[in-house]
Amino acid sequence: MNILRNISAAFWSPDIWLPPNITWKDISPNADNKYTNYQHLIYPIFMAFVLLGIRYTLERYWFAPFGRSLGIKNTRSKRAQPNEMLEKAYLSKKTKYKQIVALAKQLDWSERQVERWLRLRRSQDKPSTLTKFCESCWRCFYYTYSFLYGLIILWDKPWLWDIKNCYYNYPYHPVTNDIWWYYMISMSFYWALSFSQFFDVRRKDFWQMFIHHIATILLMCFSWVGNLTRIGSLVLLVHDCADIFLEAAKMAKYANYQKVCDCIFAIFTFLWIVTRIGVYPFWIIYSTSIEAPKIVPMFPAYYIFNSLLILLLGLHMIWTYLILKIAYRAFNAGQMEGDIRSNSSDEVSDTSVNNTPVNSNANYVNKSNSKPVAH
Q1: Backbone angles phi, psi at 234, to 5 degrees
Q2: Alpha carbon distance 249, 255 (integer Å)
Q3: Which residue has the higher pLDDT, 96 or 363?
């Protein structure tokens, strides 16, 4: 017990988490000042399951009927004929060309027939278009709420108009009820995404997204414990804006409203670049890296917090490259035919005329089921 106590004391040392000469007692919640309470960080985990319940209720009774009214069907590809040998090869996930040749000889099939069976079998496991439409509806619904709520509660906050107010008189920044709920619901949403990611439509950027969710949760936890909620609220606001249009573009794509999808996709691309590559690094990260050290004495936890902000920027740069790649192809093709960031992980590449497997740009273009993919 003494060892655990010593480890806990070392971990929660104010020398790590707070500016010099500040103790936890100085910013402990009291009747006069409602500072952040680290014990409240347990709430979003339980609230995440409430959000999941709300999500699946809305998907079943609201989003799914809405999708059907748009003509989106809850059907999957036809089933492949049962074949024990090919099923075993399919379950191995990665089927190389040599294996296809061997299977074709054993079954007395052509290589093309084996490849078609594997493609059909993989298509069986893909979620229906209606399922993906409902997922996008939920995220679009949440991001719209979160952005509007954040904008409304921050409108009269001085740090929205002058970011240096995030650091003046730090860490003596009481948390108002509206900011408390903004943080709690946002954290619960990212916890819910982390849980549901393992049974939602699986994307090729699965681990990138998982890292993104965990980094976001850690950022929010760090900012909550360190009373950095002002800058944290601005990060949330900047991130929610473009995501509304990403999900809306996907919804239009699933419903086969191509022109609507193209227009929304153009708005999304513009907002993404402005917020994630413009506002985020040149306003927020600039202030945390350049302006904050001039106002607040630096401490170890602040460097961790800033490193996580920069990690998110790195992910933004990767996704921006892929988004611009899609935008370039869409411009040349006359319509948006690719997935933003990635396709589902079970996307299957085609083969060339000489039966040599090729990629066919499966990560980005899939004309039979092309759609923007979630952030």
Answers
A1: -70, -40
A2: 10
A3: 96
